[in-house]
Design brief:
alpha/beta, 7 strands, about 35% helix
């Protein structure tokens, strides 16, 4: 069966959006705050870096990033959810942070402006054609030597995984997630001109931070 974008659960709205951070904490049995701090630290950002966040959500990640890039840096988030954008503005009121209401799966106008493009648990929620648009947007937005960081599911055999993992991927997540898991993302990114890959693993290697350089 051909996968379609209407099978995605990546666009969060309503009560789920209103309580998104709390839900993430509950789903991960309280481990999410510790996990995301480790993941953001692994980005190895520097003071003054310019960061573009695809699917910035509530600003939870943005707030952690802003602590690393400090006042000399700049953080721009992109999201389309009204509830998420409101939460972002409340959580990240810093002058060097802003959020844009725009789709990331349509061409963007940024050209070689950022040191890092970050996307966290968003890419898996798109069909492959749209994922490729997002990758192109990332490549175009980065300065030469800039980095693209994907925090999402690692590549693994879902069928041979534990009941809890299999249930989460096949029942809680959308069908697009398993399609994402089965693909070789390092090979895909190489095809778009990215090189110099690094990986950091979490949750028994079911989650991965994949960083590639332009």
């Amino acid at each position: 069966m051909k996968l379609t974008q209407d099978q995605s659960k990546v666009e969060v709205k309503g009560l789920e959006a209103k309580h998104y951070d709390l839900l993430m904490n509950i789903i991960t049995l309280g481990t999410y705050p510790f996990f995301i701090r480790k993941a953001i630290k692994a980005l190895n950002l520097k003071e003054g870096d310019r960061v573009l966040d695809f699917g910035a959500g509530t600003g939870r990640n943005g707030c952690l990033i802003l602590k690393q890039i400090k006042e000399k840096g700049e953080f721009i988030g992109i999201d389309i959810g009204e509830e998420m954008i409101k939460k972002f503005k409340k959580n990240c009121p810093q002058k060097n942070a802003m959020i844009i209401n725009k789709r990331i799966d349509e061409p963007l106008n940024f050209k070689e402006e950022f040191d890092l493009v970050f996307i966290s648990f968003v890419l898996h929620g798109f069909v492959q054609e749209k994922r490729e648009i997002i990758i192109k947007n990332s490549f175009n937005s980065l300065k030469k030597g800039g980095r693209f960081a994907i925090l999402d599911y690692n590549e693994f055999n879902v069928e041979n995984s534990s009941f809890l993992v299999k249930h989460a991927i096949r029942k809680i997540e959308c069908p697009l997630a398993e399609d994402f898991i089965l693909r070789d993302w390092e090979k895909i990114l190489k095809g778009y001109g990215f090189t110099s890959f690094s990986k950091t693993f979490f949750y028994k290697e079911k989650v991965r931070l994949l960083i590639a350089k332009k």
